[in-house]
Amino acid sequence: xxxxFDIECSPEEARKxxxxxxxxxxxxxxxxxVEKKMQDNIRNLDPETMVKTWLPATVQGWGEMQKxxxxxxxxxxxxxxxxxxxxx
Length: 88
What we know:
The protein is mainly α. It has a domain of 34 residues. It is elongated, with a radius of gyration of 29 Å. The N and C termini lie far apart (82 Å).
């Protein structure tokens, strides 16, 4: 035998009915604290350090990828006229 009940209620009503705690105030306080810490950390970082922190492999690997690209282009027929500009 199967019995099926359809109950329409909000998440808050279901939580109260089942006796579960209301965690919304705790979540809001935690998110405010996380936001404050992130803002403090961002204020203390200079732009160069921030970029290195967020994109370390991408920024460092970009130069290597360019070198590889230019070396491949230099080996192609007619590719001798295209040379990278060395800043060193």
